[in-house]
Every structure is written in C-alpha cells, then in structure tokens.
Design brief:
about 375 residues; 2 domains; about 30% helix; six-stranded mixed β-sheet; AAA+_ATPase; transport; four-stranded antiparallel β-sheet; globular; binds nickel (II) ion; binds adenosine-5'-triphosphate; alpha/beta; Rossmann fold
C-alpha cells in the first residue's frame, strides 16, 4: 500500500482526492449593448468545486457573481456571449463523461441539468417561485419528480435518476414499497414536504400560502427548501441569506453546511462575509468580473488573512474589524482599464499594474501580501 501526500496543501485530504463536481476554465461573459460596445461582466474565471466542499464567491455589488451563476445554468439573455469551459461531472461522478455547460443545448440544460444536476437558490426568489401555486404544492411537485412518481395511481416509484442517489432528509420513505399505496403516499409526501420546509426554517403554518403572500425572507426560505429537496450534486446559492435575521442567517448557513457535508458541492454567492466564514471551505474573491484571489477559508479569515489588497480591503471594511471602507468605486464594466482593474483604488499600485496580473498561487496581483508558506 502506498500513501500519497495531498497535492494541494491546505485542502482537506479526503476532499482533495475527489474529482470536482464542477470545473470552470477561462470563463468570460460579454454583453453586447445596442448602443455599441461590450460589458465585460465576467473575465477569465477559473475554479473547481468538489463534492462535500463549500466555495464562497464574494465581492462588491455588480462585480459579476450572479452573471457567473446564470452562465453556468444557461440562463443568460440573448445578448450575452460566453467563452471558456464549465465541465459538470457526469452521473457517475467524473469529469471524463462530464457535460460542458457552456456548450450544452438548452434542451439538455432544461431537462437534465437545472434542478436535477444543479440546484439553484436564486437571488430574487419571489420571481422564481410559481406564483399560482402554494409553497406546499411546489415542494410536493419537486419531491414527486425526484422519486419518479408522476401522478396518483401510476405506482411508479424510485425510477427517477436524479442527483447522486444520496437522498436528502425525509425522502427515504418515498422510495419504500408501501409508498405505492395512494393514501400512504399522500401522508409521506406531506411529511417529506414539511421536513424539507423545516430544513430551510420555513414555518409549516405558511406552507399553504402563495408566493405573493410571503415576505422576502420567507420567499428566500421557500426557495432554499425547494433547492435542497432537489438533491442535485451541485447547489448554486445566490445570496441565500439576504433578508434574513441574524439567527436565521446562521440556521440557513448551518443547513447549507450540512448539505455540503452530506457530499454535495456548494457554490455560495454572498455579500455576507460572516456567513461565508461560518460555512466556506474556500473563498473566491471577485473584482470587476475577475477572480482576484482564491484561498482556504481558515487562512483567509484567520490571522494571516487574504493576500490580495482588494480582499484585505473587503475584510478591513467590516464593522467588527477596522471599519475602514475601500476608497473609490469599482470601474465600469463597459469601460475597464487595460491593466489591473483595482489599481486605481490600490495603496500598493505601481507602474507594473498597467498590465493584467496572472494568478500565482491563487492570487492575481503584482504586489500580494507575502505568503509565509512559500519558500520562493
Ligand atoms: N442582461 C444584461 N445586460 C447587460 N449588462 C448586464 C446584464 N445583466 C447583468 N449585467 C451587468 O453585469 C454586471 C454584473 O452583474 P451581476 O448581477 O452579476 O453582479 P453581482 O456581483 O451579482 O451583484 P450583486 O451583488 O448586486 O447581486 C453588472 O454591471 C450588470 O449591470
Ligand atoms: Ni448578484
């Protein structure tokens, strides 16, 4: 027996051995504007997410986080152009039979990817819930699809090949033989729906409401419950804690963490650095469409801190830290400077910053903080 040391220091060994669920290489998104010119919403983004891992994507409003998520799901508007590759692991869990999300047909994305292989907690949940149906009925529909039971009396159970086969809380009963009996199925479905709601801290006594009868925070929790119950191997959660009180933020974050711990990959987009610190394994920092730093979360939030000046500035702006905002504003994505987009706001900028910095050890900066673990 041979023991191999993990190739990536700082990555938990068991996870490093797993192939990514999602592998993004050189992804760029441009919006062509009618007035002429392009908006460079996402530029040359590269990252992986592995099973059991939570990657938090952070950065100021308008830096391209949601556009990145939309690109992965094939949900960009017609004036968008993408380049690069985004491989989603195949049903057997490997990238060998993976699907390039950027090249896939809309039909494939609609039938086999959205909701099945990639779950989404959308940034505007109210707009994504079906307006004419109660939360309970939307949960039941998702649960039925997942277990292959199309309509009452078909007796088809457990035929659906959805997700990893690792079934979320409350689902197991739906696959038992007794579930063929319509009465029992109804009871189990109800129980599973309520269990799913509880996971996202959605109150059971609001399940029979329609989306327009929900506050923003409740719509958020309904969308999270729906996304979790889909049991997809990859979950994209776009600001899943917006509009929630602090204790609900913590409960939602903890539930998402448990979801990752049960083997799912989680890409969490968030403004909430406390939530990111609570659950992320790694942090990716985006600025003006580019990922400027990817780091281990413990290092990033710990005493060593981030290495990119923008990432350091984000943390220093927090009230519980230095409470010092980063001076200036991010550049217009339709009019980016030729070199480092952060240079105009950066205390360390020099003439070298007139060129775009290439990432070295996860940091794209000409003047990063020293990494004491590097010998060179
Ligand atoms: N359909 C579109 N056409 C043109 N520009 C767009 C379109 N959708 C988004 N953008 C632009 O792309 C940029 C990135 O937007 P995005 O929504 O990804 O930001 P974000 O990082 O998610 O911000 P927030 O934190 O506020 O949600 C913005 O400048 C936005 O105006
Ligand atoms: Ni967004």
């Amino acid at each position: 027996m041979t023991t191999r040391s993990p190739e990536a220091p700082g990555t938990p060994g068991a996870r490093a051995a797993d192939e990514p669920v999602l592998s993004v290489r050189g992804l760029s998104v441009r919006f062509r504007m009618r007035t002429g010119g392009d908006i460079a919403a996402v530029t040359d983004v590269t990252f992986d997410v592995r099973p059991g891992e939570c990657l938090a994507l952070i950065g100021e409003s308008g830096c391209g986080k949601s556009v990145l998520a939309s690109a992965l799901l094939g949900l960009l508007p017609a004036n968008a152009r993408t380049v690069g590759q985004a491989l989603l692991a195949g049903p057997e869990g490997g990238l060998g039979d993976g699907l390039d999300l950027l090249a896939a047909a809309e039909r494939t994305l609609a039938r086999t990817v959205r909701g099945r292989r990639i779950g989404l907690v959308p940034q505007s949940p109210a707009a994504h819930l079906t307006p004419v149906r109660t939360v309970r009925s939307q949960l039941h529909e998702t649960l039925r699809e997942l277990t292959g039971v199309r309509k009452a009396g078909t007796g088809k159970v457990g035929t659906g090949k959805v997700g990893t086969g690792k079934v979320g809380t409350g689902m197991a009963g739906l696959r038992e033989p007794g579930f063929r009996k319509p009465g029992l199925r109804k009871t189990r479905l109800r129980e599973a729906g309520e269990a799913a709601a509880a996971r996202a801290a959605f109150p059971a006594d609001h399940l029979d409401r329609h989306p327009h009868e929900l506050s923003g925070g409740l719509a958020q929790r309904a969308a999270t419950a729906l996304a979790l119950v889909g049991d997809a191997p990859l979950l994209l959660a776009d600001e899943p804690t917006t509009g929630l009180d602090r204790d609900l933020v913590d409960r939602t974050a903890d539930e998402l963490r448990r979801h990752a711990d049960s083997g799912h990959a989680l890409l969490m987009i968030t403004h909430d650095l406390a939530a990111a610190e609570r659950i992320a394994d790694r942090v990716a920092v985006m600025y003006a469409g580019r990922i400027v730093e990817i780091a281990d979360a413990t290092t990033f939030f710990g005493t060593r801190g981030p290495r990119h000046p923008y990432a350091r500035g984000l943390l220093d702006a927090l009230p519980e830290r230095a409470f010092t905002p980063i001076p200036g504003m991010p550049p217009e994505l339709g009019d980016l400077p030729p070199g480092c987009a952060f240079a105009a706001r950066c205390p360390k900028a020099t003439g070298a910053c007139g060129a775009v910095p290439s990432p070295v050890d996860g940091v794209a900066c000409h003047h990063p903080e020293e990494d004491p673990t590097c010998s060179n």
